[in-house]
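Q: Given only this backbone (209 positions), what sequence would you predict?
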């Protein structure tokens, strides 16, 4: 079996046994994750682990989240084709590419300039050239592109970033890990009366810088 077939088989197994079997029901999320070559977004020496049910380190203070958590976050914000989405923490670009694959107009921020350049190059190589990328402080969002239909935050916040909430449309959703040593994933829907919050479970993310 060649590498292409081997990784395709691993992806299919990931979708069936890590995602669908654990409650990921959004057909578009499952389709996107079944298509996306996750092994391209991790260091070459750990590509064989790319489809395992685990986070993978990208270097000091950076990681790519386990597939189930990525799928859960994407499902929770209910991405629709044409949505304008803010992706806080580009990292390797994996989740960024998935958002684009779901049909979103993606604005992605990464605090590490070198990582931002590297992920931007890979995203263009894979054909996701319409993504808007920026290096900067994700907590401040992307004001000139706001408001957003959805915001996905891939670093743990000690408190809810108010700038991000302000940049969310009424009816929009934001998902983020909240907490310090103990973190939990929350999804908040912005309403005329405030934020409607749902807890999605405990998680472990790198802390937002």
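A: Predicted residues:
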């Amino acid at each position: 079996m060649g590498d292409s077939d081997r990784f395709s088989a691993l992806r299919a197994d990931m979708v069936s046994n890590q995602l669908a079997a654990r409650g990921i029901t959004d057909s578009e999320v499952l389709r996107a994750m079944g298509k996306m070559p996750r092994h391209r977004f991790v260091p070459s020496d750990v590509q064989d682990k790319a489809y395992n049910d685990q986070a993978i380190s990208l270097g000091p203070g950076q990681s790519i989240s386990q597939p189930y958590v990525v799928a859960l976050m994407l499902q929770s914000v209910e991405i629709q084709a044409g949505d304008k989405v803010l992706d806080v923490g580009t990292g390797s670009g994996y989740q960024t590419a998935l958002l684009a694959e779901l049909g979103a107009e993606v604005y992605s921020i990464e605090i590490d300039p070198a990582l931002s350049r590297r992920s931007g190059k890979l995203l263009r190589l894979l054909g996701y050239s319409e993504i808007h990328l920026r290096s900067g402080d994700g907590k401040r969002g992307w004001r000139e592109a706001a408001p957003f239909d959805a915001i996905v935050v891939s670093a743990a916040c000690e408190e809810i970033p108010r700038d991000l909430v302000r940049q969310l449309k009424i009816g929009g959703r934001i998902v983020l890990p909240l907490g310090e040593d103990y973190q939990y994933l929350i999804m908040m829907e912005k309403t005329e009366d405030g934020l409607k919050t749902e807890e999605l479970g405990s998680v472990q993310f790198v802390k937002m810088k």
